[in-house]
Write a structure and sequence with these properties.
Radius of gyration: 20 Å
Helix content: over 70%
Largest sheet: none
Distance between the termini: 68 Å
């Protein structure tokens, strides 16, 4: 029973870590795309 609980805790921790990395990566990518979009918009609307 203890082995099942430790595997479950490991799975939960891994899921939280991977989820956090995915959310952080998405936010970073969105900010980067927004910055690039702003630069393109400035070039188009001089």
């Amino acid at each position: 029973m203890d082995a099942i609980q430790s595997v479950f805790k490991f799975m939960v921790a891994s899921t939280l870590i991977v989820g956090g990395v995915l959310v952080g990566g998405t936010v970073f990518a969105a900010k980067k795309v927004d910055t690039i979009g702003d630069a393109i918009q400035k070039k188009l609307h001089r």
